[in-house]
Amino acid sequence: MGVTEPRIDPRIALAVAVLAVSTSAILVRWSAAAASVAAFYRVLLTTALLAPLALGRHRSAFGRLSRRDVLAAAATGVALAVHFAAWFESLAWTSVAASVTLVQCQPLFVAVGAWALLDERVTRGTTAGILVAIGGIVVMSVGELLGGGAIGPRPLYGNALALVGGVMAAGYVLAGRSLRQRFPLIPYVTVVYGVAAFCLLAFVVASGHPVTGYPPREWVLFLAMAVGPGVFGHTVLNWALAHVESSMVSVSLLGEPVGSALLALLLLAEIPGPSTVAGGAVVLVGIGVVARSRAVGATPAD
């Protein structure tokens, strides 16, 4: 059965989704809660918002889950949980521009992972894009080592956490690719988000952070993270994958670092240093080359 013509122009949906995900870093910065707590409530509330739709319209889909599907969903959810925990924490140590740019290196790690684990061929364009992006990361890191206007108490540590977040986002894509191709979108993300929420809750408890007792402002921020970046961001991006080329979705996501950096400038008065701007631009070019060189047939994470 072919994909029906969407009622909404996918290009408009992509624009809305990129704008929505661009607010994520700002909302995390505004929150006074621990990074793992903010990540937990973002994923939990997103799950709660989508679960009624999943159970109401796709109840039969859950009955088709095999043991292998459950294991795939578990692996995907764990990767997503680590992605959020690492990336949210990175925002406490480095600039919004650097963090969001580096976590968006997901297509590079997907390409490497698909080659190493799935025996997919790596084209010259993909290789060139990866090398260009690595060069940009080096520019950012060397500039911050030399004090090139870096923002944050430990920018290199924050950058490393953002890269871990990017690696885990790629793991989320690769682990969930087969299941996503056979399972409807809403029940798929509900199951995966549910697993991720459970993992993040375990991490919050193990870290000794309080689960409740936060002021109303924090609950508003948690809900905003779920509605904006969660539902209107990532879920809409996943929907768009059924209607446009995945390479177009990947390239569209390059707007997130730009949007987040602009919002950080306007709302946080955060001006990234010259090494971050120059290196970040090179990284985005490399990611764009990789995204255009291969169609990543899977769900984006951030």
Notable traits:
single chain; 302 residues; mainly alpha; 0% strand; disordered C terminus
Structure description:
- The chain is mainly alpha-helical and 302 residues long.
- α12 (246-252) packs antiparallel against α14.
- The protein is built from 14 helices and no strands.
- The two termini are 29 Å apart.
- The longest helix is centred in the middle third of the chain and has 28 residues, at 155-182.
Structure summarized in a few sentences:
The protein is mostly helical and 302 residues long.
Secondary structure layout plus pairing:
Blueprint: H1 10-22, H2 24-30, H3 35-57, H4 59-63, H5 67-90, H6 96-103, H7 106-118, H8 124-145, H9 155-182, H10 185-207, H11 216-240, H12 246-252, H13 255-268, H14 274-293
Helix pairs in contact: 1-11, 1-13, 2-11, 3-5, 3-10, 3-11, 5-9, 5-10, 6-9, 6-13, 6-14, 7-9, 8-14, 12-14
